[in-house]
Amino acid sequence: MGEGEPRDGSERAASTGEPTGRGSPPADVVLPCLDEAAALPWVLDRIPAGWRAIVVDNGSTDGSADIAARLGARIVTETRTGFGAACHAGLRAADAEFVCFCDCDGSLDPALLVPMVDSVRSGAADLVVGRRRPTARGAWPPHARAGNAAVVRMLRRRTGVRLGDIGPLRAARRTALLDLALTDRRSGYPLQMVVRAADAGWRISEVDVPYTPRSGRSKVTGTWRGTWTAVRDMRAVLRTPSEGIR
Ligand SMILES: Nc1nc2c(ncn2[C@@H]2O[C@H](COP(=O)(O)OP(=O)(O)OP(=O)(O)O)[C@@H](O)[C@H]2O)c(=O)[nH]1
Ligand SMILES: [Mg+2]
Questions:
Q1: What is the distance between the alpha carbons of residues 104 and 84, in angstroms, rounded to a whole number?
Q2: Residue 84 has what pLDDT?
Q3: Residue 130's domain spans which residues?
Q4: Is 103 among the domain residues?
Q5: 3-state SS, residue 153
Q6: DSSP structure class, residue 176
Q7: Fewest C-beta in 10 Å: which of 16, 141, 162, 174?
Q8: Which is the closest atom of ligand 1 to the Cα of 218?
């Protein structure tokens, strides 16, 4: 399958198994969404049974919010642009004991969140992060991987936490996440979550997750400029001393 080529739901489902959340505690899945009409049907179909999808519409002009509402998601509208603004609006709207985050572009399978939430529930970890493992060329362009690797090295120097990826697929307890009082509203949001969690003594664990080519148009990592902006946002997070961000 080539880069950017749309995949249909059956192919993705075959690669990762059927969605299942039965037997797991209900969780809310926050899905930041900026023009993801092409990906929404597959993404929402993969939300584990009994869980709630919270699609945070961040100024979409392609009808994403209507599509998501028709497919049964809760819609939250966030007018402030930025990945972090969308994620945080979703976190604030959530009310389940466990909150997950997942990109809404079809690159990550929300069904993979079930064991991640189980790990938090069992007390094995406070934050579980999916380490992206690309399944095809083009899923994760080399410049984006290089930027991510640099950020991971800086994270380790800053906190001692060893992660292979600042991945967007995550699970944690809702109240604990709110207590982190995250302030970044751009691309630094996922990194700030890890930094503050580390500073607060959370146990952070990582699991491998398949990363497939996104559906629709790339907004960040598909371009050098987008990647550079993301790395700049993340460096700003790492430069902020712990006392200054509490
Ligand atoms: N970049 C960006 N993404 C947003 C925003 N608001 C919501 N999103 C969503 O956040 C998720 C992650 O953004 P992506 O565009 O996939 O960013 P990425 O995965 O780093 O890079 P690409 O997939 O290559 O574009 C997607 O579901 C977007 O639709 C925003 O203001 N900026
Ligand atoms: Mg993406």
A1: 14
A2: 97
A3: 24-239
A4: yes
A5: helix
A6: H
A7: 162
A8: 25
